What we know:
Radius of gyration: 17 Å
Number of strands: 9
Strand content: 15-25%
Structural class: alpha+beta
Amino acid sequence: MSFAQGVCPEHRSDSSGQCSGLFGFSGAEGSDVGRLAHWPDYALDCRHRGHGRLLHRGATGGAVAGGVIGHQSGHTAEGAVIGGVIGGVAGGIIGHKMDKQKKELDDIKEAKVETIKDGEGLKVTFEEGILFATNSSTLNTSSQDALNKFATSLQNHKETNVVISGHTDNTGNDAINDPLSQKRAESVATFLKSKGVSGKRLTTMGAGSHQPVASNETAEGRQQNRRVEVVIVANDKMVKEAKKEAGTK
């Protein structure tokens, strides 16, 4: 993962608008992290004071419909699609397609599948223990059956884009957890690409321990926080076709 200084539109720490935090980016091949001035075109993980936010990634190389993840999103990968609800008849058409994919994904017993974005998106969660050994970013051999099924579903529904985010509990420190979570997300993306899923559809992010879904005060909560989340949303083509079918622009 590459890091560079850049402008954070959500946290401006001085009069020049420069954020003293670090931006981290990982996306489609050939993306230029140095062009941080054009932040709407890229997925940026601002780690200033650990608030870890995923910023909007533009249309090239796999878009995520929506805007900046706000605090109200709970800082999960689901926040990447907040603000992107299509709604109306077109949204219903997209939702129907997502329902069909959800039925496929529900057959993966190792995955928790949820409908998000008013039915227009899906979130798939894999617990750490299913995919990785402790403190490792190498996929378990036993995880490949689940990920094979997941890759097949993505191939069956190609008009979608995918955000893969790695998460840890708060054991250890950011220097360990942040890169580990990023490497885990990238390991999942690499596996999916090896099964034919286009890298242009995939965006990865490492959230470290900054986006918990449960309390880190208990062993059960820490287990829930150690996970990989995958958000699936309609790409531009699906949205345009749905609007055309619905008779809207």
